[in-house]
Structure formats: C-alpha cells, structure tokens
Amino acid sequence: MKEMSVRQERVAEQIREALGQSLSKGGFKNPLIDGMISIPHVWISPDLRNARVFFTTLNDADQDMTKEVAKALNAEAFRFQQELTKFSRKSTPRLKFIPDEDTARTARIEALFNQIGVGA
Fold first, then answer.
1. Is 1 inside a domain boundary?
2. Is residue 15 within 8 Å of residue 44, measured between CB atoms?
3. What is the three-class DSSP state of 47?
4. In Å, what is the CA distance from 119 to each residue of 109, 112, 113, 116?
5. What is the distance, to the nearest Å, from the Cα of residue 105 to the centroid of all Cα atoms in its chain?
6. How far apart are CA 107 and CA 115, in angstroms?
7. Pairing of the two strands 94-99 and 37-44
C-alpha cells in the first residue's frame, strides 16, 4: 500500500477512533461482533472514498473464526458508515473490514518461540 498523506492519516485516525467507540457500545445483531475486536489501523484511499479497516480479534489463531468475524463486520458496514456521518464531511467512505495479518503472523511466531522454549 502507498504511504498516506497527512490528510489521509488524520481521516483514517478519526475513522479508527469512531469505529472503536461504536464497537465498544455493542448491540449488534451478530454476537461475533460483540466480542473483543480491536482496530489497529485504517488505510484510506487518496480520494477518501474507500477505507480498509484492519481488525484483530481476541483469538486471532482461529482463522475460521476470524473469517466469520470479517463477514459479520462487512455485513454491518453500512451501520458503521452511518456512525461516521457524524463527522462534517461531504461523503462517508465505503468500509471494508480485513483481518490484520501482521498481528496474526506475530502471534504464530510467538507461539513457535514458546514451543521452542518449552522443549529446550
């Protein structure tokens, strides 16, 4: 992904904070969304029309569960977009929720290190 401009970074941070607050409120149709979900970062396109929202779950090791959470979040994307209209912007970006592979990869590497440490 390209490096974001200062404006993109500012808007991405506003989106990340707003989505974090919305997730902490709860009250979603799907109970998977009411679980422990965090949003480490958001990437937004230069025209500010599309945003990729990277998320992690409490149990990132379970890839099937993470895929289900991604489906549930993307099904609720319109609700999240409505929450974002509180900002005084011309348009609200389309949101796409994507599991944060970096965090999952780090967790797998840490698990391998722990196995090596236990076996030594």
1. no
2. yes
3. coil
4. 15, 11, 10, 5
5. 16
6. 12
7. unpaired
pTM over the 0.90 mark: no
Alpha helices in 1-120 (DSSP H): 6-25, 63-75, 77-84, 101-119
**Both tokens of residue 25?**
């409120």
Q: Would you state the structure tokens that stand for residue 102, as one six-digit string? A: 């970096």
List the one residue out of 41, 47, 39, 42 whose CA is nearest residue 89. 47
Question: DSSP secondary-structure letter at 2?
Answer: P
Residue-number span of the structural domain to which 58 is assigned: 6-119
φ, ψ dihedrals at 57, nearest 5°: -115, 170
More confident residue, 105 or 65: 65
Distant-in-sequence, close-in-space partners of 29: CB < 8 Å, separation ≥ 6: 76
Amino acid occupying residue 21: Q
Higher pLDDT, 27 or 17: 17
Tell me the CATH number at 64: 3.30.300.20
pLDDT tens digits along 36-88: 889 999 999 999 999 999 998 877 667 788 889 999 999 999 989 988 887 65
